[in-house]
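Lab channel / #folding
Pinned by the channel admin:
"Please post every new chain as: sequence first, then the structure tokens as a reply. Keep commentary short and put observations after the output so the thread stays searchable."

First post following the new format, from NK:
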Amino acid sequence: MEAAELEKDLRARVRGEVRFDAGSRGAYSTDGSNYRQVPIGVVVPRDVDAGAEAVAVCARFGVPVLSRGGGTSLAGQCTNAAVVIDWTKYCNRLVSVDVERRTCVVEPGIVLDELNRQLSAHKLKFGPKPSTHSHCALGGMIGNNSCGASAQAYGKTVDNVRRLEIVTYDGTRCWVGPTPDEEFEEIVAAGGRRADLYQGLRDIINRHMGDVRLGYPDIPRRVSGYNLDSLLPEKGFDVARALVGSEGTLATVLRAELDLVPVPPYEAMVVLGYGDICSAADDVPRLLEHGDPELLEALDGRMAQLMREENSHLDSLDRFPAGESWLLVQFSGDSQEAADAQVREVLDALGKGENDPDVAFSDDPKRDQQMLRAREAGLGVTARPPDGRETWEGWEDSAVPPDRLGDYLRDLRGLFSEFGYDAASLYGHFGQGCVHTRIPFELKTADGVAVFRAFLLRAADLVTSYGGSLSGEHGDGQARGELLTRMFGETLVTAFGEVKALFDPDNRMNPGKIVSPYRTDENLRLGPLWRPRSERTEFGYPEDDHSFIRAVMRCVGIGNCRSHEGGVMCPSYRATGEEEHSTRGRSRLLFEMLGGHADSPVTDGWRSTEVKDALDLCLSCKGCKSDCPVGVDMATYKAEFLSHHYAGRLRPATHYSMGWLPLWARLSRLAPRLVNAALSAPGVARVGKLVAGVAGEREAPAFAEESFVQWWMARGAPEPDPADPRTVVLWPDTFSTYFHPAIAKAAVRVLEDAGFQVAVPVRAVCCGLTWISTGQLATAKKVLRRTLDVLRPWIEAGTPMVGLEPSCTAVFRSDAPELMPHDQDVQRLSAQFRTFAELLLNNAPDGWRPPRLTRAAVVQTHCHQHAVMKYDADRELLRRAGLDADVLDEGCCGLAGNFGFERGHHKLSMTIGEQGVLPAVRDAPDGSLVLADGFSCRTQIEQGGTGRRAMHLAEALALGLDGPPPADHPEKALDRPAAVTRDARLVTAGAVTVAGAAAVAGYALLRRAQH
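Reply from TO:
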């Protein structure tokens, strides 16, 4: 009853969204850490005043409060049995900028990259830049005292905060910052709760001044503990900086005034190779002695090995010099010469030259960023090693004096060996002595958890013996709160408790973190009591030990799916701003669905409405399969869930209308013109869409009067020998066969021009895509088996097969092998399937060159191609064809197969399209080509008010065979089917006539019955 009353009061008093449903609670049940606590509810305030009101309501009920930003915390500070306030959806404004003073005021939910984007016009930025910069929020950075690689030059977040507007649990709201004595006296004289806070803080620092001065490690990366040192007289009694890093345990931040720094105009980087990571660490003091870099990062051979095994960031590694471990050192200057000179000075001091095999010098910003991406990828790359050993945080950011780093790493490696944790990678911010690692802790058994805890105690003693910090970046939370006494001693930890009691005497602000903390082995996301249900599945999950549970556990909470630009993942989050509609949020709900914990808010397994609702807005774009650092494949998990959710039940209408589209397309051959007329007839089409579950705003694509296969059979070409090396099978997908056959005809023409002998299956074949995407997996398997029977002669001969529709090609390259992992023909077919560009680039006879088009092109890559096949071959083929291609990096088009056609999805579909793809097409010059190989992408572009019609790469090359395409809107040369308006009107008239006759007949029968 209390939770119900709390929810009711929050809804009545808070401007925002109040969610106590099981789905929201499950989505926020953990962060990026090893810990899990189910929240009481979630509040998404519309503005900061509403957020403050939410705190007041919670205080009236005496319930805990947890402020949350990006939710990427690795120490458990963003999970609690509390009311979670998520600031990121609405409270994300840059309030003001003072260019002269180089300051700005922000709300807590603004994302770092977005802040810096808005500041870029002033050539300013916020200095600290964690690797999560694309999605971490400033409020979270303040709560955590975040750092990142750039802290080498700009310091931690605490060093860049001027003032904070806060509200305490009891409702005291004020701005805090540096406090000169005169201001302090005025505050105290004014009386009230603010005066009590200031006087209490002064009393605490006066009592513990000597302990603070002596007990705080004098190192660049001390993040553990409260910042009591900021209250020292020599630090200006800075209350704002004292609150930075307090992890929401003392007060709620409503706004922040930040210091800004100029964007460096020029940069240069050098990468140095070493025999091992300890030797690299040994060289750090020498580098710092002879230079003042803006970053000094490291990664070891173990991380490089994992990248190679996972085929990740290979282009970055290829630029690294010889070595088994590396330091990346970047300098900035007012000119390129000045930046380059700093690199050369350091090299001279080290006795090295630019051309040495263990040196890679660069002053190309793009190349620099490419090399840095390898370092930023550390957490994702090391989370799920190919050897199957899961790695976890827990001791992932310790820090020591940089001049003692090498020895510390040797002792840490010795501790790893003692505990059997030899597979851990070591990397991090070595210029400031901060070490990142993920360790293969065993967190599912009692013995494994006991060893985990024992290791943490020993590791805490080790880093303390070096004068270091438990945390050099990620904070204490639950992971290190219990260990603080080993680092600071009883007296200072008591002082932390006094500060907590001053601000939050009832322990309601993020309780159990830093002060009076939970044990390091409590509230584990897994733990010895975790007992998930093991269910039979349709997909085989060959890369996850054939386990759906392990597949769901891929998500470790990094949160890249909450980014706002670049790549594809995650379109539904970008459009909604909802955690539940991010890849991470859905993964959390699937984890809860497994039922491993007794307190899981999701209690009905595969039948869960909460999981279904979260997956409903998943576009199945597969962006996460490639863009997620740990390879979460939510499209596959969605198909699996739908298969079980609707087992033995009536499905949504779209599962029959669009899920069975290949069958309806074949039946359209009986009267394609009549079908088109019915699909576009006023009134009739509306009723049809209503019955089929299709969005009324969508226009039905027209069927071609002659399908590609019909055209091919009429052509009467002899079938080539499957064993002939020139033979290639052109896959007749549903979309290129029945809707846009001109694409397949163009492909035949280009392939024959390249010297191939084309074969086309004339018996019905299908990849099963539409059944897979709607979760009708048993049917999909039957369809695939029939297709294998038809293709068997070509499979046995090893004949290359080329797909024109990227989503169908992706099925054979990815989905089918996962759906039928033990079928050898499926595995063979997967290896034989090519994209159109791959075939022409890698298999065309020597001497063939694509026709020259010499034209600009705007290119939208299909999401499934981005995720599975990549676009490298297409880029090269476009280059050889003379096309100046602008390959868009604007994410998903928003249509995504059946998604954008389903009733209830149209608005979101168009929102996604308008976030990048559609405006980019509108901005394309009239004479440029608009290329989109995916049927969905072409349809969205055509129906999205762009005034353009996209063509397939095959069509563009075929146009080139005839000479230059039309100078203006070259798509005018395309052949696309369209419904005949007169036919549609006739169908409507006929339907009205039939309905009228039926009504008259019914009325006559009724009258006769009455007499």
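NK: The two ends are 62 Å apart (CA to CA).
TO: also worth noting, The chain has a mean pLDDT of 95.
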